[in-house]
């Protein structure tokens, strides 16, 4: 009989039940979407912020040059996956057939990550040991009248020359536009700076403030090195993440409050319509706990279906947000489902408190007499 009463009550007031279902579904879907983005945003945002380039600088405090081996040691001893890209840079003057040029030696393998803002005409060089190809800054290429596929020859002395094929022309909007970019190994050999670099740039993950911690650790271990985060980039990562997470939390809270009010108002209306029903149940011997159990069960059934639909819609919404903002799909992390279930049930339980009290306060004699 209990279940017949419950399901009949839901079926006979289908329109109001759908209002409650819709409110709880909207709340569950928003919480699911925001939670999914919240737990995945560190990865996605860090990928987006990599477009600013390197966020960590290492230089020398002594003679102007640092050892390449020290950088390799730093990378080797760093926590796993902390450093996403790194390259030493060596600068020097070399003489070409036409005029003196500034050489910049780098590790080509990570240069795309460290300098993603480079606009390269032609193609980038992908291996560190390539001594046959070079890239050239746009301003220098125009000055020397060089194009993709042309040759540029460096001259050290009458018997020591080296020719490069221009593989890419770089437009960076800075001093790089006036440089010839070659492999670090060749630059060290040509400039007689074996095993040395002018400085180094790294990309260090900073979704949890790791950059500052990493800098402090290295300063203690390498007092002869100038170690510092590039704060304009690294600081912005944590600040932007905190602001976006705060905004998502605020949106979720507002939606949940609105859902609670909507469910509460609708349930109060339902209790008003069913006052004679509850009065009759009391007259037939129903206890207060029976009324509470009935209203709670009806609300719980609606909430369960709303949560299931909300999880599905929320996952779809999270993907839409991911594609729109980050151009990538959002991964559904483990905490998302329990958070959605708990918050949705809390909304339903809070919303049912006032309507249940009104049902319990119904004066049986007065209602049945029609007063």
List keywords for this structure.
two-stranded antiparallel sheet, alpha+beta, ten-stranded mixed β-sheet, 371 residues
3D structure, described in words:
With 371 residues, the chain is α+β, with helices and mostly antiparallel strands. The chain contains twelve helices and twelve strands. It has helices spanning 2-12, 14-49, 68-77, 111-114, 138-144, 184-190, 210-221, 231-273, 275-283, 288-326, 336-360, 364-368, and strands at residues 56-60, 66-67, 83-95, 100-106, 119-122, 133-137, 151-157, 160-171, 179-183, 196-197, 199-204, 225-229. Strands 1, 3, 4, 5, 6, 7, 8, 9, 11 and 12 form a ten-stranded mixed β-sheet that branches. A hairpin with a 2-residue loop joins strand 7 (151-157) and strand 8 (160-171). Helix 2 packs antiparallel against helix 11, helix 8 packs parallel to helix 11 and helix 10 packs antiparallel against helix 11. The radius of gyration is 33 Å and the shape is rod-shaped. The model has no long low-confidence stretch (mean pLDDT 85).
List the helices and strands and how they pair.
Elements: H1 2-12, H2 14-49, E1 56-60, E2 66-67, H3 68-77, E3 83-95, E4 100-106, H4 111-114, E5 119-122, E6 133-137, H5 138-144, E7 151-157, E8 160-171, E9 179-183, H6 184-190, E10 196-197, E11 199-204, H7 210-221, E12 225-229, H8 231-273, H9 275-283, H10 288-326, H11 336-360, H12 364-368
Parallel strand pairs: 4-9, 6-8
Antiparallel strand pairs: 1-11, 1-12, 2-10, 3-4, 3-11, 5-8, 6-9, 7-8
């Amino acid at each position: 009989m209990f279940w017949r009463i419950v399901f009949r009550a839901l079926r006979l007031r289908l329109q109001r039940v759908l209002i409650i279902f819709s409110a709880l579904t909207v709340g569950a879907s928003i919480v699911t979407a925001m939670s999914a983005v919240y737990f995945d945003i560190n990865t996605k945002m860090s990928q987006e912020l990599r477009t600013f380039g390197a966020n960590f600088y290492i230089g020398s405090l002594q003679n102007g040059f640092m050892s390449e081996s020290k950088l390799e040691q730093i990378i080797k001893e760093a926590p796993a996956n902390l450093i996403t890209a790194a390259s030493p840079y060596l600068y020097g003057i070399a003489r070409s057939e036409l005029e003196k040029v500034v050489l910049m030696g780098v590790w080509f393998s990570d240069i795309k990550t460290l300098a993603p803002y480079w606009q390269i005409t032609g193609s980038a060089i992908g291996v560190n040991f390539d001594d046959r190809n070079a890239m050239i800054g746009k301003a220098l290429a125009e000055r020397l009248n060089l194009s993709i596929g042309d040759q540029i020859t460096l001259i050290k002395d009458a018997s020591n020359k080296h020719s490069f094929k221009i593989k890419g022309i770089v437009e960076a909007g800075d001093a790089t536009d006036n440089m010839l970019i070659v492999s670090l190994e060749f630059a060290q050999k040509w400039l007689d700076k074996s095993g040395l670099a002018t400085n180094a740039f790294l990309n260090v993950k900073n979704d949890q403030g790791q950059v500052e911690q990493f800098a402090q650790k290295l300063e203690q271990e390498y007092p002869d090195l100038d170690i510092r985060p590039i704060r304009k980039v690294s600081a912005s990562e944590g600040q932007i993440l905190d602001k976006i997470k705060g905004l998502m939390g605020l949106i979720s809270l507002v939606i949940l409050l609105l859902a609670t009010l909507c469910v509460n108002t609708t349930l109060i209306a339902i209790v008003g319509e069913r006052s004679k029903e509850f009065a009759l149940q009391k007259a037939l011997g129903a206890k207060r706990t029976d009324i509470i159990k009935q209203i709670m069960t009806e609300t719980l059934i609606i909430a369960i279906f709303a949560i299931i639909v909300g999880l599905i819609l929320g996952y779809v919404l999270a993907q839409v947000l991911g594609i729109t903002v980050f151009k990538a799909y959002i991964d559904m992390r483990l905490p998302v489902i329990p958070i959605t279930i708990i918050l949705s049930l809390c909304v339903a339980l809070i919303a049912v408190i006032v309507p249940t009290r009104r049902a319990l306060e119904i004066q049986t004699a007065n209602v049945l007499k029609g007063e």
